[in-house]
Write a structure and sequence with these properties.
- The complex is a heterodimer of chains A (about 130) and B (about 350).
- Chain A is built from three helices and nine strands, in the order βββαβββββαβα.
- With about 130 residues, chain A is of the alpha+beta class.
- Chain A has a single domain, classed as OB fold (Dihydrolipoamide Acetyltransferase, E2P) (Beta Barrel), CATH 2.40.50.100.
- Chain A has a six-stranded antiparallel β-sheet. A three-stranded antiparallel β-sheet of chain A has the order 4-6-7.
- In chain A, strand 2 and strand 3 form a beta hairpin.
- Among the domains of chain B are: about 130 residues, Probable tRNA modification gtpase trme, domain 1 (Gyrase A, domain 2, 2-Layer Sandwich); about 80 residues, Aminomethyltransferase beta-barrel domains (Elongation Factor Tu (Ef-tu), domain 3, Beta Barrel).
- Chain B is α+β, with helices and mostly antiparallel strands and about 350 residues long.
- In chain B, the strands form four sheets. In chain B, strands 10-11-12-9-3-13 form a six-stranded mixed β-sheet. Chain B has a six-stranded antiparallel barrel with strand order 14-17-16-15-18-19.
- The chains are: A alpha+beta (about 130), B alpha+beta (about 350).
- Chains A and B meet through strand 4 and strand 6 of A and helix 7 of B.
């Protein structure tokens, strides 16, 4: 099945996307992730101010039948949280790259973004799964 | 052992179902969405391939006495053409499995058991036949089993000419011939809705599956089946029922008929003081999952969730849990631990929803 992988975003093998804007990044889960999880019915996000290390769990998404951790693609401090999302978790299925963005993080090490996957890399990674 | 496939395996792949191994079979978890599949069964009709389940046939003059002896529920007094749900217990009262026995005739009984327990049940049951004039066969590989569930199940089967016009109450069975096929149709299920379980040949099942889909019946996977049974609080072996508990620990005292003649486990169950109490809990926020701790209002751990999910119908997290009987709080105030936090739960004396079965 073909999944939507916008070219302008960067990705991780944990199926998160990042949109880089200077020293901040917006983070969410990919179309592949929402499709694999099925009906998403619960989202738990961190508080503003939380510091995250790359690959650290920052929250949880749950479908009817499963629980999945969300892993931060990069290190930094949470500066904004999509507080509407826990009340409308179904947005993760409907608009994973849009209204279902999860957190905005101020990078503590801007070099880390270089290790993220391009859309092509992520597409190639998905084809190996 | 290689993974087994039901006769409908190819049909599931054609529908692009999400498949996963279950009880040694490659089974469909979901086709489109768990939510849609649950709602189809609650409001219209859905069909489940449950051909992985096991079937044993007991025949002979002592068939009823034998089945009554191995089960804790009363089978002797059930009328012919009736189905009876029962745990299957060891001498010490612990649960080997739960099953439905169908009294096709006084000398012919079909027993349907959980797929994951077919070998365990067969070994147990076939070791108990010594004093009975019966013949016992394991027909698990011979039958396909489709469960058609939901308020529209009856009109749909009638439109296919499969159900006669005879009275067919809940928990009864019909043996019938249809297009040259012998079918056993039971008005049973695992969803809380009205519906039918059809035991047939593999060839018939393939044809029947397509007929049902063409009539708009929604194919439903094991994930929605689990949500459906949990919304109406039906126990599942391996969760509420295990080798470690008796039916009296798991809310199934109604299936243990201590007044009946000798049966396996009777002496132990007559003396048994239950260790656990099964409770039904829901959350306003968060989803309880199997293994999460249950606490009392003083934060003492008193038990754990045996099954948990998000209810599609109520939109809330729901759980069944086993709590230690001597720690079960009289105030009915329970907390469920989810990750780092404890959440106050609502206590339910009845199932989370009332199914529409007849």
């Amino acid at each position: 099945m073909a999944h939507n992988i916008p070219a302008e975003l960067k990705y991780t093998k944990d199926h998160e996307w990042t949109k880089i804007d200077g020293d901040t990044v917006v983070i969410g889960i990919t179309d592949f992730a929402q499709s694999a999880l099925g009906d998403i019915v619960f989202v738990e996000l961190p508080e503003v101010g939380k510091t995250l290390n790359a690959h650290q769990a920052f929250g949880v998404v749950e479908s009817i039948k499963s629980v999945s951790d969300l892993y931060s693609p990069i290190s930094g401090t949470v500066v904004e949280v999509n507080s509407a999302l826990p009340d409308a978790p179904e947005l993760c299925n409907a608009e994973p790259y849009g209204s279902a963005w999860m957190i905005k993080v101020k990078l503590s090490n801007t070099q880390e973004v270089n290790s993220l996957l391009s859309a092509t890399d992520y597409q190639n990674y998905l084809s190996t799964l | 052992m290689s993974i087994q496939k039901t006769s409908l395996h190819e049909a599931h792949l054609v529908l692009k179902a999400k498949m996963a191994p279950f009880a040694g079979f490659d089974m469909p978890l979901q086709y489109t969405s768990v939510k849609e599949e649950v709602l189809a069964v609650r409001n219209e009709a859905g069909v489940f391939d449950v051909s992985h389940m096991g079937e044993f046939l007991v025949t002979g003059p002592d068939a009823v006495n034998f089945v009554d002896y191995i089960m804790t529920n009363d089978f002797k007094n059930a009328e012919v053409k009736k189905a009876v749900y029962s745990p299957l217990c060891r001498d010490n009262g612990t649960v080997i499995d739960d099953l439905i026995a169908y009294k096709l005739a006084e000398d012919r009984i079909l027993i349907c058991v959980n797929a994951s327990n077919i070998d365990k049940d067969w070994n147990w049951i076939s070791s108990k036949t010594k004093n009975f004039k019966i013949d016992l066969k394991n027909l698990s590989d011979d039958y396909s089993l489709l469960a058609i569930q939901g308020p529209k199940a009856e009109p749909i089967l009638k439109s296919l000419g499969i159900l006669g016009n005879s009275d067919f109450p809940y928990y009864s069975i019909l043996e019938t011939a249809h297009e040259g096929e012998k079918l056993i149709i039971a008005r049973t299920g695992y969803t809380g809705e009205d519906g039918f379980e059809v035991f047939s040949s593999h060839n018939f099942a393939k044809k029947f599956w397509n007929q049902l889909l063409n009539l708009g019946v929604k194919p439903c996977g094991l994930a929605s089946r689990d949500v459906l049974r949990l919304e109406v609080c039906y126990p599942l072996y391996g969760h509420e029922l295990t080798d470690e508990v008796t039916p009296l620990d798991a809310g199934l005292a109604w299936t243990v008929k201590l007044e009946k003649d000798n049966f396996i486990g009777k002496a132990a169950l007559a003396e048994y003081k239950p260790r656990f109490q099964l409770v039904k809990l829901s959350l306003e926020k968060g989803i309880p999952r199997e293994g999460y701790a249950i606490l009392d209002s003083n934060n003492n751990t008193i038990g754990k969730v045996t099954s948990g999910t998000m209810s599609v119908v109520t939109g809330k997290g729901i759980a069944m849990a086993l709590v230690e009987k001597d720690k079960n709080p009289k105030d009915k105030k329970y907390l469920i631990n989810i990750r780092a936090a404890n959440y106050e739960a609502n206590y339910h004396s009845k199932a989370f929803i009332t199914g529409g079965h007849k």
